[in-house]
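ingest -> validate -> predict -> emit
validate: passed (alphabet ok, no gaps, 435 aa)
predict: started
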Amino acid sequence: MKKMFPAAVLLFAVQILMAATIEIVPSSLRSYKAGEEVTFKATALSQKKKLLADGTYAIIIKDSAGKIIGKELKVDTAENNPFTFKAKLDRPGFILAAPTFLTLGDGKKVKWANSRAFPAYGGAAVEPEKIFQAGKEPADFDKFWQERLKEYEKSVVTVTPAPQIKREGYKVSLVRVTFPDKKGFIEGYLSIPEKPGKYPAIAGVPGAGPGAAMTNPAPYIRGSVPAIELYMNVHLFPVQKTVAEQRKKYASYNKTFAAGVYYRESDGVKENYIYARVWPAVSKAMDYVAKLPEFDGKHFAASGNSQGGGTALALAYLNKNVTCVASSVPALCDLQGDLLSRQAGWPQLNKVFKDGKRKGIIAYFDCASFAKRIKVPAIVSVGYVDLTCYPTSVLAAYNNLKGEKKLLPMYRSGHRITPEAKKEMSRFLDKHLTK
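emit:
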């Protein structure tokens, strides 16, 4: 019987077949001075990784605000491949070099293959150590969050053994934290090593999106040493059995918000914004973990990627048990970056909450402000061509950290953590959860 494929699938296949690859890399993977010229090399490759000699494209150079700087550069692959060009920025920030479509000799336009692992962009940092948080911090920032923590002392943590969730070497339980007003809850997973003993602990939340189903209860950023692991979803619905069910529930959940997605929803009251409810609830669950007889009483990490990375910074301030932080491409940083002509960090609340709401809501959730209060050891990764959590937003938070810290620059990475950086974070956690 002849197989039939939907038209959409065939179209997708054609696009993949037609895709070409471009690599835009600075000549030196380092930080540059303001006003210093950065030399980039753009190499256009066929799907078979051979140099293209047919087609033209252009390179557009942008600054940290997404503003075009300099002239659009025209490239003919028959004459210049690889193509070398220069760009500069006269202030601290990042340079982003982005290619347009490839136009073949017959007029057909071809998309460049592009992914988080292999982005079709090039980036360079200009005096990243001088990138600091934009906007004013509310005078009552600490008071607001301490009041939230005080209120959430009344929340209830329910832990239910979940033998149906299998993790080799661990006993897994479902955790529910019911909000003090009883108008909501979050759920997640508590994994305790089966072997009797005392263990360090790790806590965090997933990146933005559906969250973790029962099939993936382990934290995304974790060490190799056995540890008590708390991994909480941020959604106000029960965890689902499978990834497919979790995604379906997430899609219907987002439809309940006028904004169409949970992280941009607000009624104008900062106490009701999602993270004002979730972060103190996760902290409450961490307090529960800190009282477990299996906890060693000494080592407690906050970790995560993207939304989880920003949350790790928040938890390092909110929870007194935290002794180290591993934050990968953290979201929710430098939320008022546009005030200094930079892209604000995800989820770019400056585009949603304007005028008075900017001051009344946004500034309370800027993880760069939490970072300013963190004195425990921290490790942070930053993608130089991250178009979700812009590198300037990550650096604004990193530069605010007060204690021992280490930056993992991912020069060719978009919004992800490279395998190398993830291993480095694991080594960091192993060190600080055992010493």
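Residues 141-432 form a domain with the Rossmann fold fold (CATH 3.40.50.1820).
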